[in-house]
Each structure stands twice: as C-alpha cells, then as structure tokens.
Specification:
The chain is of the alpha/beta class. Helices cover 41% and strands 16% of the residues. The radius of gyration is 51 Å and the shape is elongated.
C-alpha cells in the first residue's frame, strides 16, 4: 500500500515537471500568446554579405538568447533580419517592409551611413527608434529625435590621430579619403583637429570607390612629387588594401614615409587579405576603439566562435570585433528598455485613417511603444558591457579610449593609448585613464622600410613652387649679407651671417621649403630705395619672404610679420676717445669714492677716541693738557696709516681694538695702492662726448648707415636733417670719425648694436660706445601678414640659436671679439673703489671697538658703583664719575707686589754675582734692561708697539726683568 502511494507521488511530480517545462519553453518560442507571453518585434537591417554584418548577426542572436535566459519575463523580443545587400534602396525597402508588414517597434541598423540617412527619416515619421552603428558625423543625433548612434562617430578619432602627428612634430599631412558621404564626413573634423596643433593639410586626395588600379597609382605618383610624407587614410577595407598594394608598387612604403589608417580598417584588420598586410602594410600606424579584456568577454568569445561556425560553416573564421560588441550591448540595452516600458502593456502600432490611394509611407502609421522607448534609450548605460563602459547620453555613444597599433607581420601590435582627457600614453590605468608616469610616449614603432627612427615627414619635392626670398644688395657690411650673381647662369647666391642663419633655419624646419634668392639693390643716392621699400615688396606680393639685416619695427609689423629675432637689439652711438686722465692733478683722490673717504676718516677719529678712553686712566702718554689729549686722539689712529705709532698701549682691550684696526688699515692701503697704480699705468680711454645731446648743442654732424631706419630715429631725437651724413662701410665710419665734424666728417656714428660691435671689434682702441642705448627688437626674417610659416620659422630660429652652430657662425663672420681689449664695445677702465666693497671690514672694526668701549664702561661703572648709592643729583653723580675717570688709576697694591718681586729678583742676581764675579760685567748685555719702575712718572718699559731705548748701567736703579702687569 505504501509502495503504491510512493509510485503515485513520483508520477505526480513528473506530471508537474512536464507542465512547468512547457510553460518555460512556450514563451521563448513565441508561439503561444494565450499564456500571457508578450512579443515585441524588432527589425534588424544588415549588409549580410559583409563579414562585419555576419559578426554582428551572431552577436545579436547571442544577446537575445542570453538576455531571455537571464530574465524570465513575459516579454520576448522577436528579431526580424533583413539584408540590405549594400544598396540604399534595398535598405529603405527593408525598413518599409518591417514597419508596414511586421510592425516592428524598433530598428537596429543599417550599417552604412547613406542607408541609415533614409531609414532615420522614416523612423522619425513613424516614431520608431533607429539604433544604428553608422559612423558618419553627418548623421546628426540632435536633428533626428528617433536616432540612436550605437557606435563612435568617425570624428571622435580625429584628435587621437592629431595627437600622433603632434607627437612626432609633423607639420603637414595629406588626407586620403573615399569619395562618398562616409569619406567626406571626417575631413572637416580631421582638418580642425590638425589645425589645433598647428599642422596643415597640404593636400586632400579623393579616391573613388570605383577607381581602378591605374587611377589609384596615378594619384599616388602625384602625391610622391609633393614634399609631404605623412598620409592619413580613411577608406573602406577593400579600397584601402588596393591603395596599399599600389603604394608598395610606387615605392611609398619605404623609409621616410608615415601612414596612419582610421578605425574603419584597424577595427576589422582581420578581414583584410593577410598577403596584403604582410607585403604592403608593414609599419603602418592605426587607431581603433579600445575595449578592455575581461573574464566575461573571454567566455563570450568562446561562445561566439562556436555559434559563428554554426551559422556560417562554409566561411573562413573571422575574429570578434568592436562592432559585434557594440551590437551585443545595443540589443541588451534595447531589451532592458522594452522590459521597463512594456511591463504593463505593449501598445500596438496606430494605423492611419483609412483613405484611398495611400502610399506605403502614409500607410505605416505610428508606434506608441517607440515613443516610450526613445526616452529610455537616449540616456542609458551598461556599466559592465562587453565593450566596456557602454553609455549613451542624448542619443550618442560616449567616447572610449583609443588604442594605437603598429602593423607588424600578419597582425598588429599595441604601442599606446589615447584619451581625450590625458592624451597619449603607453599604458592605461585600471580606471581606463592614461598612465601619467609613462612620459606621454608611445612604444617602439617599426616604420615603413623597417626603420625604428620616426620619419621627419617631408622630403625635397621633385616639383613645386619655390619661395621667392628678397635679399638686400648694398655694397657694404658684407659680413651680414652679401649677394653675388653668376655672370653665366645668372644664379643668385647669398652669403654672410644673416644668409647662413636663414639656411640653417630652413634645414631645421619640420618640412621642406624650397626657395630662391632675388636681389634688391639699395644704392647710395638720396632717392634710392631703402629697407622699408624692401619690406613693402612682400605687401605687394612680389616677394614671399625677406632675408637680411632687417630690423623688427612697429611700423613695419603693421604690414608684414616678423619671426623671432636672431641678433641682439638696440641703437647706440660710437665716438672718438681722448687719453688725458693721467694728467689730472687730483688723480690721487680717484681710487676711492667720496663716501669711502668720509667713512674712512670717521673711523680714524672713532678708533682714536676709543683708544684714548681705554688708555686715559692708566697710560701717561694719553694724559696731560687737553690740547695734547685731543691731538693724541687724532695722532694715534692716523699714525697707524703708515704704522708710525710709538705710544705704548697697556690695556688688553686697547690691544684688541688696535690689532683689528691695523688689519683694516692694511687692507685699505693695499687696495688704494693697487687702484692708483692701475689708473697711472693702464691707458684710460675717455669719450669725446658722453651724451648725444651734446652733439645737438655743439651743432656737430652725425653719421648713420645708408638705407637704415636710424635716420627716422635721429629726427625724433631733434637732430637737424642738414647735420646727417650716411655711410655704407666700416672704413667710411672710421674715416668720418677720424676727420671730425670740422673737417668734413662726423662727431658720432649712430647705428644698431650689431654693426657697432663689428666696427669696435676692428677699431677697438680709437673709439668707444656711449649711451644711452635705445631698444629695438633686433634682426628678423620677414613674411607676409598671417603667414603660417612664421611660427615654424621662429621655433627653428630658437633651435638654431641654442645650438653650437650660432657660436661657429659668429666666429666665422666676426672673428674672436676677445682679441679686442674693449670687449663688447666698452673700454676697460679702473673704476674707483666704493664703500660697498669694504662694508664688512668697517663692520668688524666698529663692532670690535664698540664692544671694547662697552666692556670698559661696564667695568668702570661697577668699580664706582658707590657713587650711584649717594643721594646726589644725576648731574652731581655724572660729575663725580668724570672726576674719577680723569684721575690716575690707583695701582699701589700692584706696585707693592711688583716691588717685592723685583727686590727678590735683584737679590738673587747679586748673590749670583758674588759667587761668580766674572759674570757681573756682562750682566747688562745678557739680560733685558733692568730698572725699577717708579710708576706713571718713570719711563715705561718698552713693549707692545713702542721702540726700545738704550739700557742703563747695572749699578743704577734695577727694574724687573719680567713684563709689567697689564691694566684694563
């Protein structure tokens, strides 16, 4: 009985399982709507003949299956695939069929931009969202409210391409693009991105999709005659592979060339013939959207490959690409939107009112579900989509990092990444941003031809317009510019400092600049042309540039543009010199500035006063009548100037002060002697005038260079035009200055610093430059207003000036300036010594003397502190202190001790004499002078800075042999 119950229970469980299985599979098949399963029809239009469409087809099937398996809701999306067959009309027909007959609520596709353009218009009419992977920037999301772009537009990669161009400092680029809306859509965006980095699109090469191989080859030969060697290719994969085959044939895949392909080829590189990649695309750079590898993506790739083999068993295996991942994420986003919107009910398509003779477009009706879906689809996201962070904002897929690859062998190798926020980097961080620790550099690149050195981006063209460069011909100062014309070939050549700098600058340019020199004569007649006329030749478009010693001026810059200057700037004057400084009767005062003389005298008095204070109470030499004491103050310190002081100092404080002061005097006298010697022995060159205004006052003539703007400067300085004389050579300058204004010459030459440096380097001992110097901008190269070459030439000028070349060219044309004693145009003079040079010495002397004086005062006040304890007034106390200070210091105790010591020493010596009588006669000569000191009234023992006196006989008063104790 129990077994029967168990058997019945098992049968019941099996019956329930069968019912549950049927309930599960019926909604998936979409065959039974009576059980509450809601179907949402979605149209999918693809070019199923292409490999990209087949990849997307498989991804869409897997996306729907995996979404339905993970979300067992009552809403099922039923896809309806249609093949557009690479034709715009077929795509439009497929869209009308899906909207009219199937009544789909959304459309995914088409792929091509031209197909999508028409389908979008239909979607706007029937209010059905059109989710398309078309990449043309001409398809506007803002102008089409029912258009959702499910792929990055081709314009989003333009800044990544521009970053590569900027990384290698290529200044000109050729764009090769397809003659179709797909190709032309990227050109304006790419041009703008390149202009932002100051790179020009030198040529746009348009290739027709129907072009044959001969037409492609002819276009490549045309490109090869130009100077630019950097090409950006935006073609469909099939047309791009043909282009590179012909480029290889034309010799344009060798060293010196750079090729960059857009993502339309890089993202589907596996669909390109491998033989074309290996033979004709080696070294090409490419950009493509980057999708991070993940565990989910790896598992999906395995499932996708199995399903792809099932769907297309006869097709060669292709790789999963970003378009397939975008399709997968787009369908997933659409399924979520349908589930959210259709949770309550699925609105049906609203048919138009029945009328006769309705066209197919009029009979489509409108989708109420589509109006609800578009609001969700325009702003949605998948945080962990297969393609990464899949975000759609305002109907546009948001940019992701771009990967930069280098085609090597049969495939590609990653060399870096680019993001709009951080630019180029070799690696990406975990959050998808570029790693800033990689110095913004790409990895190692193998360029066309197998070179690892990046191409400079240009070559000297075999044909093309040459830059017409005007150069001045003036017959003088040929060190700066000299023009020669070959008598046979009439070829023009230019040499000199300016010409050599220009040639080196052109060589340093990032692209080729062919040029030819055109001479412009500047004659000596008053009515001849000058430098302003030469500059204005550019304004009249006779010249494309001007090279020479042309100064940058404000009035000229109104009509032309100048590069950065390549010489120093300024206007000054050169005048003759006179040599009469050594005949000056007061030259002995010039070694020291007046403030140094005053400071030195003040310190002499101060030091004498300090010594008198310290020695007044204990030293007889510093006592006596007031006149004597005042004289001693001045005598003692000034006598140290020649070390002639004979007064003995007894105080240790005084000795400290005197030692420091003697050192200061030693330094001062040595410096004075050296400066005076230099002034008396070195030739002093003094200008005849020190100010240009003196020339105006004296009515002297002024010289300047012929054709120079200096004439206008002199007029603004109030010089009379009748006092002007123009010259062309350095020899003319020398002759005019030598003769002077009274003899047909000039009193001064006013010119720009470069010319004056050159003149003084040749005549350095005869002339001197006087101020002031009026600032100018220096020499620069001249170009038309707004010329794009100006920033490039300016950067090249900086590069040349910072290198060793500039030193070599200066040495070549101007020689060694150190050969002239008056280097830099200024004479060598021995300037007077200033107080600043001796501040440290005076500070040391002042601090030592002051500290000694302060120490003495503190001791003196301490010893006489009983005076402060009285009830006398302050004046009485000060008078008492003054009397004490003026008195002789009481040294009776010291004398007594000294006297006992002397007696003991004398007794010892007498007993020694008695024992050895022969020693006595020689006693005076063998020992120091011996006599008993009688205090301040007796002659002091000779020590310190004193001069010894002859000794007294031995039988007279005998003094101590040891030194007296010093008094403070």
């Amino acid at each position: 009985m129990q077994n029967q119950r168990c058997h019945f229970l098992i049968l019941f469980i099996q019956f329930l399982s069968i019912i549950s299985f049927c309930q599960y599979i019926m909604p998936i098949s979409g065959q039974d709507e009576t059980n509450g399963v809601k179907k949402v029809d979605v149209g999918i239009i693809l070019d199923l003949e292409t490999s990209v469409a087949k990849v997307m087809h498989t991804c869409i099937l897997l996306a729907l299956e995996e979404y339905h398996a993970a979300n067992r809701s009552a809403i099922r999306i039923v896809p309806h695939f249609r093949d557009s067959k690479k034709d715009d009309v077929e795509a439009a027909s497929a869209a009308i069929y899906l909207l009219k007959d199937v009544q789909v609520h959304a459309i995914f596709g088409p792929q091509m931009s031209t197909q999508t353009d028409f389908v979008i218009d239909i979607g706007n009419k029937v209010k059905v969202p059109v989710i398309s992977p078309a990449t043309s920037p001409s398809l506007s999301v803002k102008e089409n409210p029912y258009f959702i772009r499910a792929a990055l537009p081709s314009s989003s990669q333009t800044k990544a391409i521009a970053a590569i161009v900027k990384n290698y400092d290529w200044r000109e680029v050729v764009i090769i693009y397809e003659d179709s809306p797909f190709g032309t859509g990227i050109v304006p965006h790419l041009t703008d991105a390149l202009l932002e980095i100051s790179t020009l699109v030198s040529y746009r090469s348009v290739i027709s999709p129907s072009a044959n191989d001969d037409q492609i080859l002819r276009e490549l030969y045309k490109l090869n005659t130009m100077q630019t060697r950097v090409f950006v290719v935006h073609l469909q994969p099939f047309l791009a592979s043909r282009l590179f085959l012909k480029a290889k044939e034309a010799g344009m895949m060798n060293n010196g060339y750079a090729w960059i392909i857009t993502d339309v080829v890089t993202s589907v590189l596996d669909s390109v013939d491998p033989s074309v990649i290996e033979s004709s695309m080696q070294g090409v750079l490419g950009v493509k959207p980057y999708f991070p590898r993940s565990h989910e993506l790896n598992n999906f790739t395995k499932r996708w490959r199995e399903r792809f083999r099932q769907e297309y068993p006869n097709m060669d295996q292709v790789e999963l690409n970003v378009y397939g991942l975008w399709a997968y994420d787009s369908i997933t986003v659409l399924a979520k939107a349908v589930q959210n919107v259709g949770a309550t009910a699925i609105p049906e398509v609203k048919k138009p009112d029945a009328k006769e003779n309705l066209s197919d477009l009029d009979a489509l009706g409108t989708s109420e579900l589509g109006s609800l879906l578009i609001d969700t689809l325009q702003n949605t996201s998948l945080k962990r989509g297969l393609s990464g962070d899949f975000r759609i904002i305002d109907g546009e897929l948001q940019p992701s990092p771009y990967q930069i690859v280098n085609i090597i062998g049969k495939g590609e190798r990653s060399i870096g990444f680019w993001t709009e926020s951080d630019g180029i980097s070799y690696k990406l961080t975990m959050n998808g941003k570029t790693a800033k620790s990689n110095n913004k550099q790409l990895g190692t690149i193998i360029w066309p031809g197998g070179s690892t050195i990046f191409p400079r981006g240009w070559e000297i063209p075999t044909s093309g317009k040459k830059l017409k460069v005007g150069v001045p011909v003036k017959g003088g100062l040929e060190q700066y510019i000299k023009v020669e014309i070959d008598s046979k070939t009439q070829a023009v050549s230019a040499t000199g400092f300016c010409a050599d700098v220009f040639k080196e600058v052109i060589q340093s340019m990032p692209y080729a600049v062919p040029y030819e020199f055109i001479p412009f004569p500047i004659a000596h007649s008053p009515t001849s042309q000058d430098y302003d006329d030469l500059v204005y030749k550019i304004l009249s478009q006779e010249y494309d540039a001007v090279v020479g010693d042309v100064t940058i001026l404000a009035n000229r810059s109104k009509y032309v543009d100048f590069t950065l200057p390549f010489t120093e700037s300024g206007i000054s004057a050169v005048v003759p010199v006179r040599d009469d400084e050594r005949k000056n009767a007061w030259i002995f005062l010039k070694p020291l500035k007046s403030e140094l003389w005053v400071t030195t005298g003040a310190f002499f008095v101060f030091i004498g006063f300090v010594v008198w204070v310290l020695e007044h109470r204990v030293n007889k030499d510093f006592r006596g009548p007031k006149r004597k004491q005042v004289g001693m103050v001045f005598w003692f310190s000034f006598s140290t100037l020649v070390f002639a002081h004979k007064e003995r100092v007894t105080s240790n404080l005084t000795r400290f002060v005197v030692i420091v002061w003697v050192f200061v005097v030693l330094v001062l006298t040595s410096s004075y002697t050296a400066s005076l010697t230099s002034m008396l022995t070195v030739q002093q060159l003094q200008p005849t005038i020190t100010d240009l205004n003196d020339l105006i006052k004296n009515g002297e003539y002024v010289g300047y260079q012929k054709g120079s703007f200096v004439e206008d400067i002199l007029k603004r300085m109030k010089f009379e035009s009748s006092k002007f004389r123009s010259y062309s050579t350095l020899e003319d300058y020398n002759d005019a200055l030598s003769r002077g204004s009274k003899n047909g010459g000039v009193g001064a030459i006013v010119d720009e610093l470069p010319y004056l440096r050159l003149f003084l380097n040749k005549y350095c001992r005869k002339y001197v430059m006087v101020g002031p110097t009026y600032k100018t901008a220096g020499f620069g190269f001249v170009f038309p207003k707004g010329s794009p070459m100006v920033p490039d030439v300016s950067r090249a000028v900086l590069k040349v000036m910072e290198g060793e070349f500039m030193n070599n060219i200066i040495q070549k044309w101007f020689g060694n300036e150190t050969d002239c004693p008056e280097k830099n145009g200024m004479v060598i003079t021995s300037d007077s010594l200033t107080l600043d040079s001796f501040k440290g010495l005076f500070l040391i002397a002042g601090v030592s003397a002051g500290s000694a004086l302060l120490t003495f005062l503190l001791i003196f006040l301490h010893q006489n502190r009983e005076i402060f304890a009285t009830d006398d007034s302050i004046w009485q106390k000060l008078s008492a202190l003054a009397k004490v200070f003026d008195e002789v210091r009481d040294n009776s105790n010291v004398k007594s001790e000294k006297h006992e010591a002397n007696e003991s020493q004398t007794a010892t010596q007498l007993s020694a004499t008695a024992a050895y009588p022969d020693i006595l006669p020689n006693l005076a000569s063998q020992s120091p002078e011996i006599r008993i000191s009688d205090g301040l009234d007796a002659s002091p023992a000779h020590e310190g800075f004193s001069t010894p006196e002859p000794g007294t006989p031995a039988h007279e008063t005998i003094t101590e042999a040891n030194e007296e104790r010093c008094y403070i």
